Amino acid sequence: MSGSQLWAVDVYGRGFSLWAAGGRWRRVADLLLELKRVTGSQHCCWGIGCDHQVYLHVYPSQVPIRHQEKTYENQRWNPVDGYTDTLLPTDRWQWTDEWGLNPQPLHSFVLPSANWEWEGDWYVDDESCGRESSETGGWEYAVDFPATFTKEKKWNSCVRRRRWLRYRRYKALGSWAKVPLDRARPPPEPFTDISCGGWDMSDSPEKHIYLWAVSQQGKLWFRTGIRQQNPEGTCWEPIQVPQEVAQVSAGPKDLLWVVLWDGQLLARTGINKDCPKGSSWELVQPPNQKGAVHVAVGLTVVWAVTKDNKVWFRRGVNSHNPTGSGWISIGGEMLMLSMGPNDQVWGVGSDDRTVYFRHGVTATEVTGRSWVAVSAQLDGSASTNHSSVHVQSDASVFAGEVTTPSQGSVLGCDDTDIPKPRVPKITSDSFISALVSDRSAPAHDPPSVAHPSVPEDNQMKSQESDSSVLSPSSLSDGSETPWSNVDLEEMKGSVPSSTRSSVATYPIELQHNTVVQEELPPWAWVTGGGCDISSSSHVDLFNISGATQLKQSSLTHPQPLPQPHVVLSITEGTYLKLLMCDSVRVTRGCMCWWRDWTPHQWEDVSVTLEQVTGAGAQTGDVLYLYYTHDQEKKYVYAVIKEVTALVPVFRDSLYTMAVYTPERTKQRCPILLATPSQQDFNTWLSLLNESCCASRGLGEHPSKQAMWAVTCKGDVMVHEPSPSLEAPAQYLPCEHMFWRQVPAHLLCVESNSLGVVWGIAHDHTAWVYTGGSRGPSAQGKHAPCSISDVRSVYIYENQRWNPMTGYTDKGLPTDRYMWSDASGLRECTKDNTRPPSPQWTWVSDWAVDFGVPGGTDKEGWQYAADFPVTFHGYKTIKDFVRRRRWARKCKISLTGPWQKVPPIALTDVTVLPCLAQCSLEQVPVWAISEKGDVLCRLGVTTNNPSGNSWLHVGTDQPFKSICIGGGHQVWAIARDGAVFYRGSVSAHNPAGECWYHIPSPPKQTLRQVSVGRTSVYAVDENSNLWYRQGLTPSYPQGSAWELISSNVCKVSVGPLDQVWIIADKVPGYPSESSGTVCHRLGVKPMQPKGLSWDFGIGVSFSTLSLMLNCAVLKKKKKKKPCRLKMHFCF
User: Fold this and answer.
1) Does residue 312 belong to any structural domain of this protein?
2) How far is Cα 745 from Cα 760, in angstroms, rounded to an integer?
3) What are the boundaries of the region Disordered (predicted)?
4) How far, in Å, CA of 124 to CA of 71, rounded?
5) 388 vs 719, residue with greater confidence
6) Which of 18, 120, 187, 652 has a CA that sits 20 to 30 A from residue 799's CA?
7) Is residue 187 domain-shared with residue 265, that is, in the same domain?
8) Residue 720 belongs to what domain range?
9) Distance (Å, rounded) from C-alpha 233 to C-alpha 220?
10) Same domain as 129, residue 26
11) Does residue 685 lie within any of the structural domains?
12) How far is 235 from 225, CA to CA, in rounded Å?
C-alpha cells in the first residue's frame, strides 16, 4: 500500500527507509544493492545505483498493478470463403491496433522487463461494443474498415473485427527492481542524479509521475509514460539545456529547477499537464558568488545549498513566477536538501552527516524555525557489520550466564526513543570494574542510580559521542541474585553455548531481552518526497523531548515496550536557532482584482503576501497577484515598502481596497482589490496595514508630529513626516508619502505637534484623540471606546412641466434621471440607494429635506428654468423644471482611541499650530458651534486634550470657519463671507478683546481660512486660493488679497508657513484627481507664496491638518529676517 516513507542512503551506498507513522531505519531487503541517489513520491521511490542504472521501488498495495494489452483481428468477406483473413492489398493488416495504423500480431507482445508477468493467455473480448453477447464471438461488423463498427451484422457488412486482450501484472511490488533500457533505442549515458515530481499537476484521479535525470555528461533526460498502470515508464527523451547540468529537482506540481556545473541555476517555464516537459529556461543567479551546488523544489518553494554549505530560500516562487524574486539566508549548513509533499524540508548536515528536519514549517511559516536531527534507531533485525552483544533472559534458556552474542540487538529493559549507546568489548577491564562496583552498591540505593558508568550530567554528551558502557542493574533489595557466567572474549562467530573461555562470574539481574543498537551511519542522501507530515502532527510524531528519557530508564524496573516512532532530538550542536537569519511568512488567499485595461472587469486572482523578517531582509514584504490571461499564467506584484496608502472603498457591491504606489499615484490608477465578505476584507486590510507599518518602522499609534487628513467618505488618514519633509536638499515628493488609516469616522480633523488632535463627526459631535492602546488591557481614558457617526444620504426627485399635466416625472429624452444624485448623472431611487458602505446601517426612513441651500417651498420643491440652472425656492413663470431633496440617515459604529467631548455640537475647530519643543500651560482651541457661535476651549493640555469648559466669544453674526495661527492670530469667516481678525489674543487673554473686519477679495465670498506663522490663506466659494499680503507685526490684518491658484477645496498652513491643499482637480487628470493632496514648493521667508505645486496622492481627501518635525526649525533659524521670526515664534 502507498504510505508516508522517508528514504535515505548512507555513505556506503546502503538504502534505508523510515515510516513517518512510527518505526526505525530499516535497510532494504536487497543487501547487495548499492544506491547513490533516491527520489520518492507517495506511491514509489526511484534511485540510481552505483552501477549508474535506474532502480524503482513500488510500495506494496492490495490492488495489483495490471496493464491491459489489446490487439484487433481483422477479416474481410468474399463470396467463396466468406469471412477470411485474406485481405485486399489496400486493407489494413490482419492484426492491428484499433485504428489499423500499426501491425500488432499476438507474438509481437513481449514483457517490457523481468518485473512483469503474464496473468493468462490471449482471449477474445466479447463486450467490446458495450453489451454482453456470447453468440457473436466478439465480432464487430462494418461496410469497410474506416467505417463505424456495430455489433449487428447487415447485408452490406463486408469487413469485421474483434478485440483480443491479455493482462500483464507488475510483480516487483515492495522490492527494488532495475528499470530496463529502452527497446530499440541507444542507451542513455550513465545517470548521476534523479528527481521525480509532477503528480499534483493534474486533478485527475490517475496521477502521473514525471521523472527527470542528469547524465554524467551534464545532459538532462525526461522519462515518458509513467503512470499508475505503468510505473516503469516508456522511454527516455533528452531535454535541451543551454549548459551542462549537475543536479535536478522537480516539485509535486509544475516547478523544475536545475543546477549547472558553474553554480548557476535554471528554472523551467511552460510546464503544465499538456506539456509536462516545459518550453524554455530562465537563468537564475546563485545566492552568493560561490555558486549553488544543490537545489530542492516543493509546491511553491525553492531551497538551495551553495558550495560553502549555506542554506538559502527563494522567495516569490509560484507557478505563475517559477523563477521567484530573491534569496533569503537560512541558518544551518547542509550537504543537500529534500522537499516533502507539503513543503516540509529534510536535509543532511554537512559536518555530522545527520538527517535533519526543518521544524515549524507550515503553510504560513514557509521557512520554519529550526533544524532538528532525526535520531531514529536502526532496525535490529537488519544485518550489519558492526559488533554487538545479545543477552538472552528467557526462563527456560537463561541460567544465570551470558551466551553466544548475536547482531542487531539493543541493550535495555525498554525500547526507549533515544539513540542507544554502543557496547564496548567485554574483554575490557573497565567493564569488569563497572560490574564489581555495581555489585557492591548498597541495596537501598534508589533505582534512579541505574547507570553508574554514565553520570547523569554527562548523559547527553555520551549520547552525542555515541560511546557508552554496559550498565548492569542495581539491586532492588538485599536478596541474593543468581550468579552469571560472563564470557570476557569478543565473540567472532557462532560458538556453541557449551564452549567458554576466560569465564568470570558476576550477579546480573535481567528482566527483558536487552540488545545494543548499531550506531547510525553517516548519511549521504535523503528524500522526503513520499513523507507527508502535516504541521498539526509534529507534537505526536516527533518527540522533541525524547532525549530526556535517558535519565528515567532503569534495568531493575521493567516497563512495557513503547511503540517505536521517529525521534527528533534537540541537543547541543543539532539545534540551530534562527537568531541572525531571515524567515519568511506567507499568507495566501483569493480576491478579485480590477483589470484596468480593456476589457475593464473584475478578475479572480490568487493573492500572496510574503513577509520577511531578520537582519538580512533587504527587499522586505511583497504582495503578489497571480492571474491567468489568455490561458497564460501572469502575475503582478507590489513591494510593501513602496505602498503609499491603503484606502477602503465600496464598489460593485464588493468590499474593495485601493492600493497606491508612487507610480500608481502618478497615473491616478490604484490597484483595486476586493473580497466578497467583510470578514476577509478586514483581515486583509489589517494584515496589509501591519505589513506597511512594520516595513517603515512605524509604531502602533501616530506620532505627535503626524499629518492628519480625512477623506470625503470620513476615513481618517495619517502620515508620519520625516525631518527632511520640508528640506529642499532632501525633499520627499508627495507621491512617496505613506498614509495609514486610523480607526475613526470624521468630517474634519485638526492637530498640532504637541499631540492634541480634535475632530468633528458628520453629526457635529466633537471627538478628541487619546492616542491610547487599542488592546484589551487598556484602561481609563486611553481605553478604546465606541465611536459612532450619523450622516444623511441625499437623492433628488426631478420633474418637468408640460401644458397638459403640469409637473410630472415624464421628462425629455435629454433630461436627467427622474430620481438621481445631485449631478443628475447617476440614477438613484429609494429602492436601489444603499448606505455609503456596508459598515453603515439605516436608522431612519426617507423624508423630504427642507434645509436645502437656496430655500424650498412648503412641499420642499426648488424651481429653475432648466436642470443645469441654479435652483431657487419659489416658482416663477419661466420655471419649467423642479426638484426636491430626499434624505435618509445612516449610522456607523467603530472602536478606537477617541473620547467624546459633550455637549455642544460643532461645525469647525482649530488648534494652535505650535512646534514640538514649545512648552505651553494650555493649548488654545477655538471652535464654531452648529448655531454659528464662536467658542474658546479652556483647560486643554497634553495630558487633558479634551479640556474642561467652553468660553463663549461674542460675535455680531454667525460664523462658519475659524483658524488660530502662530502668535495667537485668530482669523474667522462669517456665514455671509465676511472675514474677521480677533485682536489681543494671548496666553493670558485666550478670548481676546474685539473683532476687526477684513475686506474680502473683490466679488468673492470666502468659506475657509488657514493661518500659519506669518502667512494667511483662504479659499472662496468658487474654489480659488487667496493669499493675504502685507502682514507685519505692527499691522497683522494685512493689506490685500492675491490669487494663487484655482480648484482648491481646502488649505492648511503649518507652523513654519508650509502650505498644503486639497485640490479638486489636477492638470492632466480632470476627472480622476478629486481630493488630491498637493504641496506648495519654494515657500521661503522672502518668498512666502512659493513657486509651484507638487501633486500627491488622490484618495478624495476633504480636509488636511499639517504639522512638522522640529528638525526643520533648526534649518529655518538661519533664515532672515530674524525680527519677524522672533515675533511670531513662541
Assistant:
1) yes
2) 9
3) 404-424, 438-501
4) 10
5) 719
6) 652
7) yes
8) 707-784+897-1128
9) 17
10) no
11) yes
12) 7
CA distances from 178 to 35, 173, 181 (A): 12, 12, 9
Residue type (1 letter), 310: K
Q: For residue 456, give the 3-state DSSP assignment.
A: helix
Please report, rounded to a whole number, the percentage of residues in the chain having pLDDT higher than 70.
Answer: 76
Residue 272: all three cell numbers together: 503544465
Angle at 340 between CA 335 and CA 342, to 5 degrees: 140
Residues 6+ apart with CB under 8 A from 637: 316, 325, 622, 623, 624, 625
12 and 55 share a domain?
A: yes
- Mean pLDDT value of segment 514-521: 67
pLDDT tens digits, one per residue of 962-988: 999 988 999 999 999 999 999 999 989
Task: Count CB-CB contacts under 10 A for residue 373.
Answer: 22
**Residues in a beta bridge with 359:** 370
Phi-psi region of 618 (alpha: psi -120 to 50; beta: other; left: phi over 0): alpha
Q: Are residues 34 and 54 in the same domain?
A: yes
DSSP 827: B
- Same domain, yes or no, for 58 and 79? no
Distance CA 659, CA 28 (A): 57
| DSSP-derived pairing of the beta strands 949-953 and 265-269 | unpaired
746, 759 Cβ separation under 8 angstroms: yes
- Is the separation of the CB atoms in 758 and 663 below 8 Å? no
- C-alpha distances out from residue 226 to 232, 258, 408, 470, 954, Å: 6, 21, 38, 51, 92
**Residue where a domain stops, chosen among 639, 667, 695:** 695
Which pLDDT belongs to residue 385? 40
Place of cell 513543503: 343
Q: Contact, 28 vs 554, CB < 8 A?
A: no
* Domain harbouring 654, CATH code: 2.30.29.30
Look at residue 472 and tell me if it is in a domain: no
- What CA–CA distances, in Å, run from 713 to 2, 71, 661, 886? 58, 74, 21, 20
Q: What is the CATH number of the domain that holds 1045?
A: 2.120.10.30
Cα-Cα-Cα-Cα torsion 358, 359, 361, 366, nearest 10 degrees, comes to: -60
Other CB atoms within 10 A of residue 472 CB: 24
Measured CA to CA, the distance from residue 462 to residue 468 in angstroms comes to: 6
Q: For 548-621, where are the E strands, in sequence order?
A: 568-569, 583-595, 601-613
Instruction: Tell me the residue type at 353.
Output: R
- Please enumerate in sequence order all residues whose Cβ is within 8 A of that of 454, keeping only pairs 6 or more positions apart, or say none: 421, 462, 468, 469, 471
* C-alpha Rg value of the chain to the nearest Å: 43
H helix or E strand, kind and range, residue 123: strand 123-124
Assess whether the previous peptide bond of 1121 is cis (omega < 30° from 0).
yes
Which has more confidence, 939 or 614?
Answer: 939
H-helix or E-strand spanning residue 538: helix 538-541
Write down the pTM of the prediction: 0.72
Q: What's the pLDDT at 1069?
A: 59
Residue 718 is placed in which grid cell?
495619517
Are 662 and 1098 in contact, with CB atoms under 8 Å apart?
A: no
DSSP annotation of 103 reads B
E strand or H helix at 623: strand 622-629
Provide the domain count of the chain: 5
How many angstroms separate the CA atoms of 796 and 846, rounded? 11
- Specify whether 1090 is located in the same domain as 1045: yes
Verify that 939 and 1038 share a domain, yes or no.
yes
Determine, yes or no, domain membership for 509. no
What are the grid coordinates assigned to 1008, written together?
A: 475657509
Domain termination site, one of 695, 727, 758: 695
- List beta partners, residue 1095: 1078
| Residues facing 854 on adjacent strands | none
Same domain flag for 691 and 638: yes
| Cα separation, 18 vs 23, whole angstroms | 6
Confidence of residue 116 (pLDDT cuts 50, 70, 90): very high
> Rounded to an integer, what distance in angstroms lies between the CA atom of residue 1031 and that of residue 246?
78
Whether the link from the prior residue into 903 is cis, omega within 30° of 0, is yes
Tell me how far apart the alpha carbons of residues 1056 and 1088 are, in angstroms, rounded to a whole number.
Answer: 10
